[in-house]
Amino acid sequence: MHKNSNATRSVAVIGGGIGGLVVALKLIQEGYKVTIIEKQNFVGGIATSFHHGDYIMDVGPHVLTFPTKSEITDEIISIVEEENLIDLPSMSNLYKTYFQGSFFTPGTPISKIFTTLGIGFSFRAFRSYFISKCKNLFKSKFHTIDEYMIASYGEFLYNIWFKNYIKLQFTGSDYSLKNIVNSYPGLSLKSIILIIFTKKSHVALTDNISKIRSSQFNKYPKLGMLFLIQKIQDRITDKGGKIFLNSTITSITHNSPKKITFEQNNQKNELNIDAIIYALPPKLAIQWFPNPLQPSPPKNLAQNAIMVFLFVDSPGLFDWWVINFNQPDLIFFRISQQNFLSKNICPKNKTLLCIEIMCNDNDEISKYEDSKLLSIVLSDLKKIDILNNETIDSKILKFNNFYIDSQMSSNPQQQEIYNFINSHKQEYLMGVLQDSGNSSDSNPSQSNAGFHSAFLNAAEIVKKINLDFTKK
Ligand SMILES: Cc1cc2nc3c(=O)[nH]c(=O)nc-3n(C[C@H](O)[C@H](O)[C@H](O)COP(=O)(O)OP(=O)(O)OC[C@H]3O[C@@H](n4cnc5c(N)ncnc54)[C@H](O)[C@@H]3O)c2cc1C
User: Fold this and answer.
1) Which of 14, 78, 354, 369 is the most buried if burial means most Cβ atoms within 10 Å?
2) Domain boundaries in the chain?
3) Which pLDDT band, with edges at 50, 70 and 90, does 21 fall under?
4) pTM of the model
């Protein structure tokens, strides 16, 4: 279809996260009239940055998970422009996992972990494993995750490592026995022998990030993710796209002619459009449709985030970027030194530390005052020798439903909503895009990573819209 023939066709994009922005830009490039309606007073959604004095705090994605070379990679470079990107060192060296007082790199062979943790630890782990194996020798069916994991790995390793680890890994998604069994096939005696005598690692014990990250586009916008978002936003508005922020949608008419009514600053607006794209999580998008999916309303599996940003009066606290924790005795599950990625997001000789805490509405922690949260964070950081006596200023940001279930394909409820919305003429659900970090050169089309998927899905939706209008 010729681009000019789209000039009178209007499309509304609901949600101005990276997904909504990219699809809006691509539609404008195809000649459509595009309007973005966003609930917040900023675009970017999860992918955004906040300013605090001279600091720029990135709350969501910190990596452009793209293959090293691809059409999409070229597209992102042309948007951000090469001079605004900085090269990152190999990503596999940037992550560590803290376990029992030691820091491990992803992919560390299990034998090395046991050697590091000492003979006492190894003895307890193996003894507990063998006892569990003997107890469950003839058992083939398990009823709970605890039962299955203890039978597979032993009580000691389960309690000390897996219990918390799998909860973190399955945050916001289907934490069911079936999924756990598929993800963590138990350790057989044969695999134990292999572990002892080879350099084998285990996906759960050492986060197999190294392979993934080595084939990645290792660049980062030197002024943080917001810079990239603003570049896309500028392109949209420069080309005539409209963005309504702070807007509350009050109704959507799905039949032709389609109509969206929304309020912005107490003012009622009406938009007549030809097509609608829902660029937000399926369970949010479904609110504008009459209750079609009874009797099972979508479950909310998302977790809230408390992000404690520390502005530290010292040039660097450790020599890498991220440390993952899964110790219930520490309040956080991840900390990252944001200035490790770009010195420009932080004044010279200072450190910007981001501490992530995950909780749900019912957790005690979600009711804590900021001062209490800060004092626990500081004391935990001192406990593991990350902080000493540096001068620290802080800012705490809280986000609801931040860690989300975004794997549409593995969640039948989300898939159901996706199919339902897409069954409406000229309506398209983009959904929220998953970050698995799995953007690889060998098979870029299989990438699930958030930013990469935003570009892939946007191109797909534009193709569909063009085709649907041709058929009309
Ligand atoms: C901690 C973290 C780290 C991540 N790291 C990476 C990474 O390194 N690399 C990577 O590629 N991806 C990463 N991701 C994933 C990536 O951030 C997401 O996949 C991506 O930002 C999702 O974009 P989206 O536009 O689909 O959704 P969102 O960003 O959620 O956008 C949805 C938008 O819809 C708006 N909205 C909601 N309700 C309404 C309503 N009623 N009306 C109007 N608007 C509404 C929201 O305000 C929001 O702006 C990470 C995610 C997290 C949480």
Assistant:
1) 14
2) 3-48+70-84+219-299+410-471, 108-205
3) very high
4) 0.85
